[in-house]
Design brief:
The chain is elongated, with a radius of gyration of 21 Å. Helix 6 packs across helix 7 and helix 7 runs antiparallel to helix 8. The chain folds into two domains: 84 residues, Tetratricopeptide repeat domain (Serine Threonine Protein Phosphatase 5, Tetratricopeptide repeat, Alpha Horseshoe); 110 residues, Serine Threonine Protein Phosphatase 5, Tetratricopeptide repeat. The chain is built from ten helices and no strands. It has 196 residues and is mainly α.
C-alpha cells in the first residue's frame, strides 16, 4: 500500500510539475518578446540550471544580445546547451571560434562544433563546415568532404550551398564527385552517423 501511495504521489508531482515548467518557459518567452530581459532571465535560469537545452540556449542569446555583450555568460550557456545536443547552440559556439567573436579565433575548434551541429541536420553548420573543408581552415583541405557537406546543406534547404557546390565541382574530377556523392548518400541513410 505504501508503494502505491509513493508511486501515486510521484506521478502526481510529475504531472503537476510539467505545466509549471512549460508555463515558466512560455512566460519567459513572452517577457523576452516584450523586451523584459530581466524577467526572462529570472524565469529561464532555474530551467537552464536543471539542464533544459532550450532555456540554456535562450539564456545565452539574451546575454549575447545585451548591451554591452556578456560573452562569458553567452558562451557558458551555449556550451551547456550544445553539450545537451542543441544544434543552434553548437553552431553559435562554432561561429564564435570561427570569427573570433566572444572566443579566441580557433578554426580547428570551430570545425569540431560545426560538425556536431551538422550531424544534427543543421544546414548553416553543414555549409560552414563545407567552407572549412574547401579552404583547409582548421581542417585538412578536402574537396570530397566539402562537396558532401554542401550536398547535405542543400538537402536541408541552405540557399547558397548550391552555388558553392557548383563552383567547387568545377575544381573536382568526376571520380571525386562520384566519391562525394557516395559519401553523401551514406551520410543521409545513416542519419548523419557515417559522414566521414
Amino acid at each position: 500500500m505504501k508503494k502505491v501511495i509513493k508511486s501515486t504521489a510521484a506521478l502526481l508531482f510529475l504531472f503537476l510539475w510539467e505545466p509549471v515548467t512549460a508555463g515558466t518557459y512560455e512566460d519567459g518567452l513572452a517577457a523576452a518578446k516584450r523586451g523584459d530581459m530581466a524577467t526572462a532571465v529570472k524565469l529561464w535560469t532555474p530551467l537552464a540550471e536543471r539542464g533544459d537545452p532550450q532555456a540554456q540556449y535562450d539564456l545565452g542569446w539574451l546575454y549575447f544580445m545585451r548591451q554591452p555583450k556578456d560573452c562569458a555568460s553567452a558562451i557558458k550557456w551555449w556550451n551547456k546547451a550544445g553539450n545537451n545536443g542543441h544544434s543552434v547552440a553548437q553552431y553559435n559556439i562554432a561561429l564564435a571560434y570561427d570569427t573570433g567573436l566572444c572566443l579566441p579565433k580557433n578554426r580547428s575548434k570551430a570545425a569540431v562544433w560545426y560538425q556536431l551541429a551538422a550531424k544534427r541536420g543543421y544546414a548553416p553548420a553543414q555549409n560552414n563546415l563545407a567552407v572549412l573543408y574547401d579552404n583547409g581552415n582548421g581542417v585538412e583541405r578536402n574537396k570530397v568532404k566539402a562537396y558532401m557537406w554542401w550536398t547535405m546543406a542543400i538537402e536541408n534547404g541552405h540557399k547558397r550551398a548550391p552555388q558553392f557546390r557548383k563552383e567547387l565541382s568545377s575544381r573536382m574530377t568526376p571520380s571525386e564527385i562520384s566519391e562525394a556523392t557516395k559519401r553523401a548518400k551514406a551520410c543521409r541513410s545513416s542519419k548523419y552517423k557515417r559522414c566521414d
